[in-house]
Amino acid sequence: MKNILITGASQGIGFELAKQFAKNDNFNLYLVSRNKKKLEKLKLELNKINSNVNSYSLSIDLSKEGAIDILVSDIKNKIKHLDIVVNNAGYLVNEKFDNLSENQLLQCFNVNIFVPFYLTQKTLPILSQNAHTIFISSIGGINGTKKFPGLSAYSSSKGALITLTECLAEEYQDKSYKFNCLALGAVQTEMLDQAFPGYKAPLSANEISQFIFDFCVNGNKYFNGKVLPVALTTP
Ligand SMILES: NC(=O)c1ccc[n+]([C@@H]2O[C@H](COP(=O)([O-])OP(=O)(O)OC[C@H]3O[C@@H](n4cnc5c(N)ncnc54)[C@H](OP(=O)(O)O)[C@@H]3O)[C@@H](O)[C@H]2O)c1
């Protein structure tokens, strides 16, 4: 059995990714987001897909002080170690640069970079042999890609996540575990609607989750510290 942690599982890509893992009997799932009702709905969906699926969930705001300690301590009690960690929770701010408030900036950097940073620090001691940590970034976080007005905080926080991936792979290259990053292009979710209202993405959350699932399970055999752009279009 492999133990999987997915943050941001209440909707969108994280929700669909949990469903991909549930198709198989080999995974215990630990699912996190703030919205308890949506996590309960996900649990029902997972049980419909596979009545044997073993899933735990925690509704918590990961950006709040102490939240990651609470999460990691609960993971230790319930499933002990982690084989795959998917840092998927994300926060979008779509605001003109000169109107960005301190709160918007803090929340954006908190969820998109500080949370994965601390979560990685705190989960390192419970990673199993050959564990794979995946960071879900954005194509807009890659240097030289097209940028969009209103997304300065979001895209720069996602850029930091890309650099963090490379640093971790370097710092832990003597270990068996791997760190990789997927820089996604447009996927039809609530977040995309907020970033580009009315835009129709070429991929659904279900479609991209099939790719992410495969990458989570197999990507560490081929990659470490890599940032893969996974985008058909811009946005
Ligand atoms: N959709 C796209 O086109 C696209 C493109 C590039 C990258 N991405 C990235 O892909 C990931 C998933 O995005 P999505 O499109 O599925 O977005 P989404 O539908 O907005 O889902 C975001 C998830 O993050 C969780 N979350 C947000 N703040 C949180 C917090 N403080 N604590 C715990 N959970 C929190 C949300 O759950 P709660 O509200 O229940 O907390 C939700 O489950 C994000 O990292 C996003 O930046 C998406």
Descriptive account of the structure:
The protein has 235 residues and is an alpha/beta fold. The mean pLDDT is 97. The chain has helices at 12-22, 36-49, 67-78, 102-123, 152-171, 190-195, 205-218; strands spanning 2-7, 27-33, 54-59, 82-87, 127-138, 178-184, 227-230. Strand 2, helix 2 and strand 3 (54-59) form a beta-alpha-beta unit. Helix content is 42%, strand content 20%. It has a single domain, classed as NAD(P)-binding Rossmann-like Domain (Rossmann fold), CATH 3.40.50.720. It binds NADP nicotinamide-adenine-dinucleotide phosphate (NAP). NADP nicotinamide-adenine-dinucleotide phosphate binds next to helix 1, strand 5 and helix 6. NADP nicotinamide-adenine-dinucleotide phosphate binds at residues 7-14, 33-35, 38, 61-63, 88-91, 111, 136, 138, 184, 186-187, 189-192, 205.
Shape: globular
CATH level 1 name: Alpha Beta
CA gyration radius, whole angstroms: 17 Å
Instruction: Supply the CATH architecture.
Output: 3-Layer(aba) Sandwich
Figure out the total of helices.
7
**What is the strand content?**
15-25%
Determine the mean pLDDT: 97
Q: Tell me the total number of β-strands.
A: 7
- Overall tally of structural domains: 1
Low-pLDDT windows of residues: none
